[in-house]
Design a protein that fits this description.
alpha/beta; FAD/NAD(P)-binding domain; nine-stranded mixed β-sheet; six-stranded mixed β-sheet; FAD-dep_OxRdtase; FAD/NAD-bd_sf; oxidoreductase
Length: about 425
């Protein structure tokens, strides 16, 4: 079949490659090109154990205090609050233990083999050089801080994840970079990292084109819909049609999804990173600094600190406070760090109210498919999402339960 994949981030490129390998004629359409957004700016971690959502029990009471605390990793552009209220009202209904369990078990099926999925996706391509299989670590300043986080670790354990809890001295024998900054470090096994996310996705996209795929730089402005099914993509250069269309536009997917009757409550969860070029210290593994909910990741020639949650929509520019917080937090755990330059970046992560990505057909006839809404784990879950979409389009039943990710759960009935 002729297939259009709308979006050239890691999810879209993964869909395109697996569809191409299944024998389809595939075109990627994107307004800026491969990895121009969050697929470039993410933390670079294959976070297979990221199965605990932000919406844990008690968030509704903690959030106001976090928003007023300049050292908390939650930010809000207050001028955006009136537009955000309907989403927040829905978002906060998911702060229950029941939903955390539902989310965790569903996401485990999507994420648990993420390193293997990336290796399979990149096999035979130059992109494989960017994949590492290091542990993903969580650093806690005190034992009490670790114990206070027991809720999340119990959920990961219940889902079958393997991790080691070590003291500072034991971790320092593996990597002395952090000195005594952490009293407890949790090492999550069977994870990994991408040493340059932007170049990685670009290398995958180049491979896709080398194999006969087409990449068109065009902005999708609208869609035509007849009887609930899409008939064309509208661009400034004319209409685009195909046998099947896959939407992997991240937070920009909302308008199209709603027009297709997939009324998903979705917001942009703005993420930030700062990057130190030619750093004097280079840790061995990605480290989640638990106190600031951000990740320090070693990359090719630079050190990236990425994280923070800010609600502020798609239109407004970056805020100063998240960058300043990241700098303070890095200085706290790496006080002797020297570097040549520092780069700041802000991007958009698609966050559905229930935190579950949408993966599957938008209509009963399977004319179009959704592959977006991965919030913090687009890089981690992208390759498997692409494989699932390719199976669905080709008429093969995937071997996981897709009900939690079904776009039609939001269909207007």
């Amino acid at each position: 079949m002729q297939i259009i994949v709308a979006g050239a981030g890691i999810v879209g490129v993964s869909c395109a490659i697996w569809l191409q390998r299944a024998g389809h004629d595939v075109t990627i359409v994107d307004r800026a090109g491969p990895a121009s957004g969050t697929s470039h700016g993410n933390a670079g971690v294959l976070a297979a154990a990221a199965i605990v959502p932000v919406t844990t029990p008690g968030l509704i009471w903690k959030a106001p205090g976090m928003l007023l605390n300049k050292d908390a990793p939650l930010f809000l552009k207050w001028s955006y609050l009136p537009k955000l209220i309907p989403f927040l009202a829905k978002y906060l209904t998911y702060t229950t233990d029941k939903h955390v369990d539902y989310y965790s078990l569903a996401m485990a099926t999507l994420l648990q083999d993420s390193a293997d999925q990336h290796i399979a996706l990149a096999k035979g391509t130059p992109a494989k050089a960017f994949i590492g299989t290091e542990d993903y670590c969580f650093g806690y300043a005190t034992k009490a801080d670790f114990e206070a986080d027991s809720y999340g670790w119990s959920k990961r354990k219940n889902a079958g994840y393997v991790y080691d809890v070590v003291d500072a001295k034991t971790y320092a024998a593996y990597d002395p970079t952090y000195g005594d900054a952490f009293e407890v470090v949790v090492r999550c096994k069977h994870h990994g990292r991408i040493s340059d996310p932007g170049k990685y996705v670009q290398a995958l996209a180049d491979h896709f084109v080398d194999q006969g795929g087409k990449l068109q730089i065009q902005e999708i402005t609208d869609i035509d819909v007849t009887d609930g099914a899409i008939t064309a993509l509208k661009t400034k250069d004319g209409d685009l049609t195909a046998d099947r269309i896959v939407f992997a536009l991240g937070p920009w997917s909302k308008k199209i999804a709603h027009k297709l009757g997939v009324k998903v409550p979705l917001e942009s969860e703005r993420g930030y990173h700062i990057e130190f070029t030619n750093p004097s210290q280079m840790p061995k593994s990605p480290m989640m600094v638990a106190s600031g909910k951000f990740v320090i990741t070693p990359m090719d020639g630079r050190l990236r600190a990425a994280g923070v949650v800010e609600f502020g929509g798609l239109e407004k520019g970056p805020s100063r406070a998240p960058f300043d917080l990241l700098k303070r937090q890095v200085n706290k755990v790496l006080p002797d760090l020297e570097y040549d330059d520092i780069v700041e970046w802000m991007g958009h992560r698609p966050a559905p109210a229930d935190s579950l990505p949408l993966i599957g057909a938008n209509d009963a006839g399977g004319k179009s498919y959704s592959a977006f809404g991965h919030q913090h784990v687009g890089l981690t879950g992208g390759p498997k999402t692409g494989r699932i979409i390719a199976d669905l389009v080709s008429g093969t039943k995937p071997n996981i339960d897709l009900a939690p990710f079904d776009p039609r759960k939001y269909a207007v009935r």
